[in-house]
Amino acid sequence: MLAFAVVAGLQVVAAAVLGVMRTTPVRRVLDGPPVHPVRQTFIDLRDGFAYLLQTRWLLATLIFSILLVFVIMGPIEVLLPFAVKDQTGGGAGAFALALAAFGVGGAIGSLAVASMRLPRRYLTLMILAWGFGCLPLAVIGFTSWLWVMVVALFICGVLFSGASVVWGTLLQRRVPPAMLGRVSSLDFFVSLALMPISMAVAGPVGEWIGIAPAFLIAGVVSPLLAIGTLALARLGQDELAHPLDASADAEPVTGAGAVAGFEPPVDEHEHR
Asked: Which residues are listed as membrane-spanning (predicted)?
């Protein structure tokens, strides 16, 4: 009961902080004829998917994230409680400690990356951190020591959340302001599309092959996905052609062009 009360209190604090935040000016000005909200929603979806399909680095990253979430979320969300209970003999407190390690690692990783200058190879760093950050999951199914699980999840949290900071910065710097809302929405929707399926199949897979092999697959497949994404999408060439520190913020798209859609910059086409 106390835990729920604390969570509720924090939600109230968050709402209060949100209420005192300053508003920012709209960065997309529509000077065309009024459009029905339902029709505008479908227009935004069309434009968002069009931009996604035309922008190689964005499409490759989202495909990678879909597959990564499918591989790791089932074991973490469904099988981890059984691993803690069956292998370490721990209960709810031990499981909470394991989850807390992931959260603390995520907070530290986020703060560390946010305080540093982004590297030249920002796409490579981000994809490899996500992929190899899940490698410690491979040991969870083979250890009977809780502290090993805690350390493994802490490392996962550091690298996973650190890479997420790079991703958030990348969206702000390389996605035009007129498309940012649509792309961010697609990012959230597409990235988590297979998470329910991952959680649904994790239980049967764990019973079929065992918890240890399931975590081993999650830990080993993730880095392979990262390496494959970098190689197939040629993201190394893309990041060298588009240095974040050298590029200015994209110009806002206004008027009818914002309604009809956005055409990616010429340099995005050249390096697709």
From this structure: 57-80, 92-116, 145-171, 183-202, 208-233
Say whether domain 32-270 belongs to CATH 1.10.287: no
Q: What is the dihedral of CA 164, 221, 83, 206, to 10 degrees?
A: 130
- From the number of C-beta atoms within 10 Å of its C-beta (0-12, 13-18, 19+), residue 117 rates as exposed
What is residue 88's three-state secondary structure?
helix
pLDDT for the residue numbered 192 = 86
pLDDT tens, position by position, 184-217: 888 888 888 899 999 999 999 999 999 999 999 9
Its sign, for the CA torsion 29, 32, 33, 39, is negative
Helices (H), ranges, 21-55? 37-54
Q: How many CB atoms lie within 10 A of CB 25?
A: 5
Give the rounded percent of residues in the chain with a pLDDT score beyond 70: 86
